[in-house]
Amino acid sequence: MAKTGGRTTGSQAGAPRAPAGARRGRAEAPSRPRSAADLVRETARALVKAGVAVAHGTADPVAEAAFIVSEVLQVHPEDFASIARKPVTANTIQRVRELVAERIATRKPAAYLLNKIYMRGVPFYVDERAIVPRSYLGELLDAYFGVGRDSLMDTRRIGRVLDLCTGSGCLAILAALTFPKAHIDAVDLSADALAVARRNVSDHGLEKRIRLLQGDLFAPIGAAKYDLIISNPPYVDPAGMAGLPDECRHEPAMAFDGGIDGAVLVRRILDQLGMHLNPDGGLLCEVGRCRPVLETAYPRTPFLWLDTEESEAEVFWLPAKDLPPV
Q: How does the average pLDDT of the chain come out, rounded?
């Protein structure tokens, strides 16, 4: 449920430059793209010109253009290079242009138009009932959990995982893939979001390892304890809510709204955490720009702030041993 940190603004990093020798003056009809790469360039130019906000699973207009073209061609985006120079048909060009026109006119995220997005290369179904999957937690599960001395936790010791505010179920599924022996409980307040999560769990054949529960944070799990709790809860404050781009307004507002200071749900998680973590367990939680709020509210709590390729101090790790006494 990534909502801030530069991912809900229309960054134009990596946007294509105008072709050398392009004529100025009267606009001319675009030339017919000859290859998949040509079609990506045309699409990226259209997205930049329209000023759409990207970041719903893609980093910039070129990445979003490659995502759209790849889906129309039924190729995984990571494999786009293998077909970049291949010719494209008139039908493919028409379909891509129709999607781009709808993307620009409606400002709907491309993931909703295509009912698909990828995290860590894993495909997920998505529609307007759940926020478009995007989170730094997937990268951190890969980077910080393993069997070495630098790991936050030994993957082999993780038997039970809880995903709070699961939304489309993407993080629960990534956790199941990262921790092959673990059973995961995934909780969300929204019945609509859980319907999307149920489809994703089924698509990945994980019904026996992931249990979906509806309710408010820890309420549906009773007194259960876990080795690892992960969460990407709503964490946008009122100013951030007012400034959300049009694309985000197609997503469920409850997936963004973090209350008066953005950290209302995060504080509730922290205040109940000790009752649901095993002694060697820990919490991995994404909080956007709420670090100052949390460090003020919990001055003696030694949050370990983790960085990713695109973020700085938007996710913390907190082991059970560092929790204050309940």
A: 89
